Amino acid sequence: MTGGSRWHAALLAAIVLAFIVLATANSGGYRYGIGDQAFYEPATELHLHPDFFPRDRALLESQAKLTVVDEALAGAARVTGLTLPSLFLALYVLSLVIVCVAAAQLARVLRFSPWATAVFLALLTLRHRIAKTGANTLEGYMHPRQLAFGVGMLALTTSLKNRWGWTALLLVLSAVIHPTTALWFGVLIAGGAMIETLVKHRAAVIFGVLVAALVAGRVLGRRALGLIHIPGFVVMDPAWTAVLSDKDYVFVSTWPAYAWVFNLAYLPVIWLIARRRRGARVTHVNEGRIVAGGLALMALFVVLAFLAEARVALAVQLQVSRVFWLLDLVMTMYLAWWLTSDPWVTRMTGRVAPRVALAVIVVFSAGRGAYTVAQGVADRLLVRRDLPADDWTRTMQWIRSQPADWLVLADPDHAWKYGTSVRVSASRDVVLESVKDTSIGMYDRAVAMRVAERTQALANFANMSAGEARAIGQRYGAAVLVTDATRSLALPRLFANHGFTVYDLR
After folding, report:
1. Residue 348, pLDDT score
2. What is the helix (H) or strand (E) element at residue 282, kind and residue range?
3. What's the angle, vertex CA 211, arms to CA 209 and CA 214, rounded to 5?
4. How many C-beta atoms surround the C-beta of residue 201 within 10 A?
5. In sequence order, what are the residues at sequence separation of 6 or more whose Cβ sits closer than 8 angstroms to the Cβ of residue 81?
6. Do 142 and 91 form a contact (C-beta atoms < 8 A)?
7. Stretch (H or E) spanning 464
8. What are the extents of the domains in the chain?
9. Nearby residues of 154 by Cβ (< 8 Å), 6 or more positions away
10. How many whole angstroms separate alpha carbon 129 and alpha carbon 104?
């Protein structure tokens, strides 16, 4: 390798490392076992330890059966010999590397200047929630969705270069990792390629029709949509949908005005900047597919949103509002070009604009990331590979050392109150973990009814007496009760520390 090649490789490595650090910091630091890992970690454990989760197996498999990522994660753990914390950290880093490389390659194909590419990467480190989608652009833990998103970006890049074999292969890989994320990229790519010629001069009109359709659907309301009957599709009944009442991103009829404004603004901004690029004659020959693909995603959103309002289960489960994550990516990419390369901007500011834009975004990202890490967690670490060394984890470790068939009765909100779920930190069944069990209930009515019944049974958990705790334990077969150490119940104590007490319910 020549000196120039070594310098180039070192520069690329530095850029990727900076991207990983900034993205992680803006996500509040990397944390194992939080968020949606309340599902992915125990679903993986099921394959590594078949004796785990004898009671919760049906609940976990109701979602796990829809993907193969849990089997793949378990297989990777066996082949590599890595523990799940180490494996998940490695996959988290890999996800960010792929997102960074894919974004740089996409910018290169679209003929972005180095400054525009750098600004694009810097903007991607600014984690934010996409309005009413239940998804963030980045997560502070390993999520298959983030890895699949990076692979989908690579597929988008190869499609612009007409390398359709690679595109298909990457979309299949993305689907293995996270099916719905791959589906959205498939619509963006295939839909864009199919309708590109139809929308070149009609984009504004088509967008107007789509908006009119959305408004019409809003006016018609849920009652009219409820009259729709589609043979062969399962329709959610009121009892099932009631369990999802706290998922405010599922049904568009519940969206506030700001969500509509933000989400419907993506396509006009993309279209306007795309026109600026065409006027500047810097567009890629196949770039029209991106705008056309955005229209295809919006059309899919309209169709599935209508079906979700009619309570068609599949439409609800697809969570189609997450197509706006892809539109957010495209808008971010185009904004990076506009800030650094638009003829009007460069004419007004000269060569200063790209440098100032990059400096401001990087400084803001670094400052925001440092603040988020410092304020968000007690240990103030950028990366925490294992579970935190606190009283909750020590209590869960003790429970993990007990028989594998123990069922734990704990605060239904324990996962977000104490940081991790019983299933993750103790690898044991739990009577109810309200946040994740509700999400899983979206995929299976029986699970949803289980969640509803147990939510009602544990409604008074914070004030229940020893007799009530015993009755609930007998009702569900719970072996132990975990409570805050400030509470004292007339039950046999099995374990205690400064934070928590474990009582025997048998």
Report:
1. 75
2. none
3. 110
4. 8
5. none
6. yes
7. none
8. 3-31+82-376, 391-504
9. 98, 101, 102, 105, 170
10. 22
Q: Are 339 and 345 in contact (CB under 8 A)?
A: yes
In a 10 Å sphere around its CB, with 0-12 CB exposed, 13-18 middle and 19+ buried, how is residue 165 labelled? Answer: exposed
Quick count: other Cβ atoms within 10 Å of Cβ 475? 12
* DSSP, residue by residue, 298-313: HHHHHHHHHHHHTTBH
Give the pLDDT of residue 250. Answer: 87
How far apart are the C-alpha atoms of 110 and 365, rounded to whole Å?
A: 25
Number of CB atoms found within 10 A of residue 245's CB: 11
Among residues 257, 240, 294, 296, the alpha carbon closest in space to that of 444 is found at 240
Q: Which tokens go with 378?
A: 């007690």
Cα–Cα nearest to 376, from 17, 89, 127: 127
Alpha carbon 268 to chain centroid distance? 25
Tokens coding 122: 């810097």
Q: Looking at residue 6, what is its pLDDT? A: 81
Cβ(123)–Cβ(337) below 8 Å: no
Given a cut of 60, whether residue 238 has pLDDT beyond it is yes
Q: Is the pLDDT of residue 349 over 50?
A: yes
Closest alpha carbon to 134 in 257, 261, 251, 249: 249
Tell me, what's the pLDDT at 133?
A: 87
Rg (CA), the chain: 25
Which tokens go with 234? 């399962």
Q: How far apart are CA 207 and CA 188, in angstroms?
A: 15
485 neighbors 498 (Cβ within 8 angstroms): yes
Query: Is residue 289 within 8 Å of 192, Cβ to Cβ?
Result: yes
Q: Is 424 helix (H, G, I), strand (E, B) or coil?
A: helix
- Threshold 0.85, pTM exceeds: yes
Tell me the sheet residues that pair with 235. 312
Of how many residues is the chain composed? 506
Q: Which of 455, 461, 460 is nearest to 483 (CA)?
A: 461
Strands 30-31 and 493-496, bridge-based pairing = unpaired
